[in-house]
Amino acid sequence: MAGPIHFGAEVADARTAGRPIVALESSVLAQGLPIPANREAEARMRAAIVSRGAVPAITAVVRGVSTIGLAGDDLERFLARDGVTKVASRELAAAMMQGRDGATTVAASLTLAASAGLEVFATGGIGGVHREPAYDESADLLELATTPMITVCAGAKSILDLPGTLERLDTYGVTVVGYRTDEFPGFFTAHTGLRVLQRIEAPAEIAAIFRASRALGRRSAILVVQPPPAEAALDAEVVGRAVAQALVEARTVGVRGAAVTPFLLAAVERATDGRSLAANLALLEANAALAAEIAGALGAMR
Ligand code: PSU
Ligand code: MN
Predict the structure, then answer these.
(1) Which of 5, 135, 156, 290 has the most CB atoms at less than 10 Å from its CB?
(2) Ligand 1: which of 79, 106, 243, 280 to mutate, most ligand atoms within 8 Å of CB?
(3) Whole-prediction pTM
(4) Does residue 20 lie within any of the structural domains?
């Protein structure tokens, strides 16, 4: 182990060989998705990345060790959600000190991946500005503002205040580009009516934007958004109703803090009879695939 980060064997080999690597979060596996869909998500993301010549690198805190390349028995514990807590960037150091199993959010995953020099990360949807209370803003936003990483997602989760989230990304100087879309997608839905500044058609263009941003010394992320695959995307009206119902449930239960996002995702799944889950899996796979292509394009530029 060199430094505070442990690399899984596959990731260590990829680093030595200079192969493209795609970082992935673990909170979506241990908190965001139910069992057994979380296993399917991991397998589909992995296959999408490997089939494009890149190597997946799930970030996590494993029994107190910051890890890039969660695998084997450790991964099994996370998929079983066995004593695994949700860890955002602020909790990384404490989770290490306490020897905990911590599933890293987008924010914490960006921190770990960047400290190991990785440049491409894929997730489902980023956290953002919540609708209520509006002062509940995901640490993902600030971390995107300060971490030089190409981050591929399907926008921000439909449960959030999407215009507010997009405005905050603007304030923070995060470059948001639409991959083959003019719109900021709504995670389960392709259309939100919110426009992105820049539409991009090819992975190599994204790699070039990242290099240009880095050449300027900028440390903010390039947020690449693509809509969920058409066959899995949900109707905006259906999602709108489901989210409204989920918010009522959240208010009734009085859920707060880090529990809010997993709670709302589960409530939307119930309200859509599981169709949001199918959309979630499909978009995770598609985002992993695009991230692998971008990682390959970055490698080809070197
Ligand atoms: N998107 C999903 N499922 C998830 C998450 C996002 O489809 O589980 C997780 C990510 O790890 C993200 C986190 O970083 O939720 C945001 O949580 P919070 O709102 O507490 O910052
Ligand atoms: Mn929050």
Answers:
(1) 156
(2) 106
(3) 0.96
(4) yes
